[in-house]
Design a protein that fits this description.
Layout lengths: L1 H13 L6 E5 L5 E6 L14 E5 L4 E6 L2 E5 L4 H10 L3 H8 L9 H14 L3 H12 L3 H13 L3 H4 L12 H13 L3 H10 L2 H4 L2 H13 L7 H14 L15
Antiparallel strand pairs: 1-2, 3-4, 4-5
């Protein structure tokens, strides 16, 4: 009797209580939410030490323990967006913040997290396609995205979406984008963008120097080698430098 009761009390003191949690389930039994509670002194609490009550006026839930009190309130829109972000359900979060009015979250801030999430998972095509809608005319954000694609060695995928008017980006971004085609020897695509993009953003001397190096590297070893000369001539033309053009001997003095 006495020893058994003492042993039971000793055991209860030695066993560490688990952290309490609130689990919400639907009538079907499906779990909708599971939240662990940060209650002070829970290690020494037993189940019957906790009490839960609901105040009908504000729908707040009060959870009390001997050493603490927690007040739970219904989730608002900001809470929902944060929860969707934590679950990587960015498309749903974007729909909520699209029209604004959500504290702490904007369409752009959530969207840029989504872009990073897509890049991290190798979904470069989807990421590139969404850039215009999410980034808009934010030049600095475009610069960061171009660098991110460059670091992943996937900048050629983004090129068709890079803005050339609104906004007009820094010259180095276009140089980096064009040189990405040269790095993988996609010379015809390089030429297509060279002709499509305005001369003032393509005719950088640094790009000319880079192309000269590529020409020397692949001399007579690539089927599109001759095509590179046409691209080089076009870049010299953009710079009005006809003396150094590979076709300079054809230009009358």
């Amino acid at each position: 009797g006495i020893n058994a009761e003492y042993g039971k009390q000793w055991y209860q003191r030695r066993v560490r209580a688990i952290r309490p949690c609130v689990r919400i389930t639907a009538f079907s039994g499906q779990e909708l939410s599971l939240e662990e509670l940060s209650i002070r002194g829970f290690e020494s609490c037993k189940a019957n030490d906790y009490n839960m009550s609901v105040l009908a006026v504000d729908h707040y839930v009060y959870i009390s323990a001997p050493g603490d009190l927690i007040i739970a309130k219904p989730r608002d829109t900001t809470d929902k967006v944060e929860w969707l972000r934590s679950k990587h359900r960015y498309e749903e979060a974007l729909e909520i913040v699209r029209d604004g009015g959500v504290e702490k979250h904007s369409y752009k801030s959530v969207g840029q997290l989504y872009l990073a999430y897509l890049r991290d998972r190798g979904q470069y095509e989807t990421c590139a396609r969404l850039c215009k809608d999410i980034i808009g005319e934010d030049g600095e954000a475009w610069n960061r995205e171009i660098l991110a694609f460059h670091n992943c060695k996937k900048l050629t995928i983004l090129c068709q979406y890079i803005p050339i008017h609104k906004p007009r980006l820094d010259a180095w971004t276009y140089e980096l984008a064009l040189s990405s085609f040269l790095q993988i020897h996609e010379f015809k695509q390089f030429g297509e963008y060279l002709e499509k993009w305005p001369p003032e953003i393509c005719g950088q001397k640094a790009l000319i120097n880079y192309l000269v190096g590529v020409v020397k590297e692949v001399k007579n070893t690539h089927p599109d080698y001759v095509y590179l000369f046409k691209c080089l001539a076009l870049l010299y033309e953009y710079n009005e430098d006809y003396i150094n053009s590979p076709y300079s001997e054809l230009i009358p003095c």
